[in-house]
Amino acid sequence: MDKRAKLRLLLGAAFLMATSAIGPGFLTQTTYFTEQLAASFGFVILISIIIDIGAQLNIWRIISISGKPAQDIANNLLPGLGFVLSFLIVAGGLAFNIGNIAGAGLGTNVLFDMSPKMGALFSGVVAIGIFLVKEANRLMDRFAQILGFVMIGLTVYVMFTAQPPIGEAAARTVAPDTIDIMAIITLVGGTVGGYITFAGGHRLLDAGIKGKESLGYVNRSAISAIGIASIMRIFLFLAALGVVAQGITLDEANPPASVFQAAAGTIGYKIFGIVMWSAAVTSVVGAAYTSVSFIKTFSKTIEKQQKWFIVGFIAVSTIVFVSVGKPVSILILVGALNGLILPLALGVMLVAAYQSRIVGDYKHPLWLTIFGVIIVIAMSYMGIISMIKEIPKLFS
Description:
CATH class: Mainly Alpha
Largest sheet: none
Low-confidence stretches: 327-332
Number of domains: 1
Distance between the termini: 56 Å
Mean pLDDT: 88
Keywords: Membrane, Transmembrane, Transmembrane helix
CATH topology: Amino acid/polyamine transporter I
Helix content: over 70%
Main location: membrane
Subcellular location: Membrane
Radius of gyration: 20 Å
Number of strands: 0
Structural class: mainly alpha
Organism: Pontibacillus salicampi
Protein name: NRAMP family divalent metal transporter
């Protein structure tokens, strides 16, 4: 593979991971916490970026060195563990994909005044169409890149129209008035939780980018992915901060829409529709691809018919939303469980990094191991706290 083709794949993997993270929940979380914490939310973003990079570098490097997907690494480490990890990833991916489909329906509703259910059907067909073409993986990469640039570009425009207090945001990023632990775990879970952190790592593996000689490329792709998602987060934060700083109260039912509309009027509202649809449909693609990548090694049939399982995954997500609606209770429960998937997955990778039968003679950097262990402990604690708070809500 020549250098240009490899760089194209690395960028594709980075955008696949980043756009998988930038979904409807990402937009809502960012605007919600900006209203709650104002400029101090910059500190939360900074800490979450540091944690995201540590988690992603560890996971992507071990996948690349072993030449195996995460579920096979887990099963090699402890028989059956890969099946548990896969179940959590696929269940979470399916539940959140229903939310992504709902977000895509909302985006088309804003743009074309189409009913959310019809918009969801249209969006599901678009996502399915990507995997029916001959060069599906290449189209998936390009689709994520184009819509990723569209989302960032439009959000930058809205940010400038909102005229945020950038100086105050910079100051509070390093010296916050308040520190919100739950905001940190929400952002980390929304960026590298569940299936998201594996999206790019498994994409690189499928493209044959693995082994020690590829570590430099893997590092660049992993950091680029976090960088892309973080740029979108920062611009959206500044746009929301500009609106909040003017004393405007955001609509509780749809905080990001009210940010775009308050900042740029009717044009801003339509821009929100484009951003929401782009964020949602790219997340649908990323969730389906990554979820199926977690089960394809368990069966030759699934491996040979991977694209049809991906199509089925998207179709089921779409049908559930159209027929039942957004299953809020399931989303709450899986959201709580999602906080525990990252420490489990990262913990598995850190142990695997020191098993010669998995990584050969590779020596994992000590600083990355220490960084990873700290993340596992912190995210485990905060994930358990999140579950304790969220599960009772299902029965209230």
